[in-house]
Design goal:
Number of domains: 1
Helix content: over 70%
Shape: globular
Number of strands: 0
Radius of gyration: 19 Å
Structural class: mainly alpha
């Protein structure tokens, strides 16, 4: 039986969201490694194609005979376009021009964008502490972007701005997906997300190849791309979509706070990235603002 925003979510829903965050945290490092052997959009296309093919086979093997209305198909196409094609176009291009650590910290602001979108669209009640969190988080973001313009820690202004564009797409996906999750299985939605994501990414990857060519893949890059497909596009999204069946969009987005911690540790170990002192302070301000905004959100919600 599907959950609802008013019912108490099961513990396994929160466990799924934690697992999602850990898997996503590793994708920033994996993307950096994959970029050594593939161009940004080709990585995304291969990722979605591999993931979509595997998920389709699993779904069909489990007796996938669900009928889909034209309206639902349109929504699934929109989800795939926004959450995969648009989001990863900006994120992969951004990570190619900034540090994995900076990218992960910026992606953690997705809950802030969700809060702002909900405040002005569904008129969700927003408390003073939430708005303070928004201001703090965006102040930290502004500092990171400005530091990127100086080239601190291997980041760049353009790269950080591209990652912020991905944040907006991620927030839109979180809001859009909530209604569909309560009526369809996580496997069903994730399968069609990847298939549509690959479909829409194909022409973009082709244009990229025509303009900049194709790199010679390395073994490490192939392995990293497989990580992105299997853990990033299958396991993480199945866990996320499962969690969204029981947990509200705002609460689910709060679990992205775990992502930058995993990413920064991974970037330190695998890539040798280092945070400058100013970047570390800005990151604390960003995450502090996100925590405050989501703490206020939980207090504002009934039950």
């Amino acid at each position: 039986m599907n959950g609802s925003p008013e019912s108490r979510p099961p513990l396994k829903a929160y466990a799924a969201l934690v697992g999602m965050a850990v898997a996503f945290g590793g994708t920033f490092v994996a993307t950096k490694v994959a970029l050594r052997g593939f161009e940004p959009l080709l990585i995304a296309f291969v990722r979605f194609t591999v993931a979509g093919a595997i998920l389709w086979l699993v779904w069909r093997r489990r007796g996938g005979r669900e009928t889909v209305s034209r309206r639902e198909l349109g929504r699934l196409a929109a989800l795939g376009f926004v959450s995969l094609t648009v989001y990863f176009t900006f994120e992969n291009l951004g990570i190619a021009h900034t540090s994995a650590s900076d990218a992960a910290i910026l992606i953690a602001t997705i809950p802030i964008f969700v809060l702002v979108i909900n405040a002005f669209t569904v008129r969700e009640r927003t408390t003073g502490s939430q708005w303070l969190g928004v201001v703090l988080s965006f102040s930290g973001v502004a500092a990171l972007v400005e530091l990127g313009a100086r080239g601190a820690g291997g980041s760049t202004l353009g790269g950080n701005l591209l990652v912020l564009a991905a944040c907006v797409a991620g927030a839109l996906y979180t809001v859009m997906a909530r209604g569909l999750m309560v009526t369809r299985s996580a496997l069903f939605v994730t399968t069609f997300q990847n298939l549509f994501g690959a479909l829409f990414m194909a022409p973009l990857a082709a244009v990229e190849a025509a303009l900049v060519g194709v790199k010679t893949p390395t073994i490490a890059a192939v392995g990293a791309t497989l990580y992105l497909a299997l853990l990033g596009s299958i396991v993480a999204y199945l866990l996320l979509n499962y969690g969204l069946r029981f947990v509200s969009a705002g609460r689910a987005s709060a679990f992205t706070n775990v992502v930058p911690v995993i990413a920064v540790i991974g970037a330190f170990i695998v890539l040798g990235e280092r945070f400058a002192a100013a970047q570390a302070v800005a990151a604390v301000v960003v995450l502090g603002g996100v925590f405050l905004a989501n703490r206020g959100r939980r207090a504002a919600q009934p039950g």
